[in-house]
Amino acid sequence: MASRSLRLLLLGYLGVLSNPEVSGISIETDNKNVKAEEFKEAILSCKHKFSRGMSLRIEWKKIQSQGVSFVYYNGEFTGDLQGRAEMLNTGIRIRNVTRRDSGTYRCEISVKSEEGQHLGEATITLTVLVAPTTPVCDVPSSAMTGTVVQLSCKETEGSPPSEYQWYKNGVALLEKTGTGNARTPNITYTMNKKSGTLIFNTVTKNDTGEYFCEASNGVGLSQKCSVKRMQVEESSSQEKTNYQSTSEKDFKHTKSFVI
């Protein structure tokens, strides 16, 4: 299909080069960058200023890395747009758009008149916005104090890419910003909203709690993973230190009492 499309395109250009009476015309579009939510409709406009009754030839093509393919040719839609698209004068309405419809489209119009043949084109980029899916969250069930602990959250369907917000015991965690004294006080973690990571450089018992993450990208509803509990326990070395500290206090207290 791609090779056939390229042959037709080359033949058209060769025809233009061999005809000295061919000249350019101005083709306009209302929006060069169209954005539409998935499963809704998108309109790709293509306008000209020629009078009715003139002989127009209209073609729409999709420009992809692997080549150029016809979308509308010889009065019919082709490929994935069959049954989902209709002409609006010389523009296109696409119903039930999917993420596969994203890409660059080109409207090409040729007009025959007494002065000769006129050609023009307009290029439109269609971006299909996709709502996020339920993110996958990785929360350790247990951790030891003083260790580095990382929680992760990710979903891969959203377009544009999702940002992530972590919650502890139902309360949104603040995002630490700045360095040194500019950092928000009393925050023992670093949260990256773009990557979805929540890192405790030295986790403490106070970090014990129920965690979940929410993904959102401004399209549709935000999505969250299920709540998972992280229990932080003191390490054996810390327990030993605490025991020794308590024993020393008891000894001093007993010695003082005996004296």
Explain the overall architecture.
The protein is α+β, with helices and mostly antiparallel strands. The chain is 15% helix and 41% strand. The chain is built from two helices and 20 strands. The strands form four sheets. Strands 1, 2, 4, 5, 6, 9 and 10 form a seven-stranded mixed β-sheet that branches. Strands 12, 14, 15, 18, 19 and 20 form a six-stranded mixed β-sheet that branches. The longest helix is centred in the C-terminal third of the chain and has 23 residues, at 236-258. The termini are far apart.
Global morphology? rod-shaped
Structural class: alpha+beta
Termini gap:
101 Å
Provide the β-strand percentage band: 35-45%
How many DSSP helices?
2
Query: Main β-sheet, in a few words?
Result: 7 strands, mixed
- Rounded radius of gyration (Å): 32 Å
Q: Which whole number gives the mean pLDDT? A: 83
What's the gist of this structure?
The chain has 259 residues and is α+β, with helices and mostly antiparallel strands.
Quick tags:
single chain; 259 residues; alpha+beta; seven-stranded mixed β-sheet; six-stranded mixed β-sheet; 2 helices; 20 strands; 15% helix; 41% strand
Draw up the topology in text.
Blueprint: H1 2-18, E1 23-24, E2 33-37, E3 42-44, E4 55-64, E5 67-73, E6 76-77, E7 85-88, E8 91-94, E9 103-113, E10 116-129, E11 136-138, E12 142-144, E13 149-154, E14 163-168, E15 171-172, E16 189-192, E17 197-200, E18 209-216, E19 223-224, E20 228-233, H2 236-258
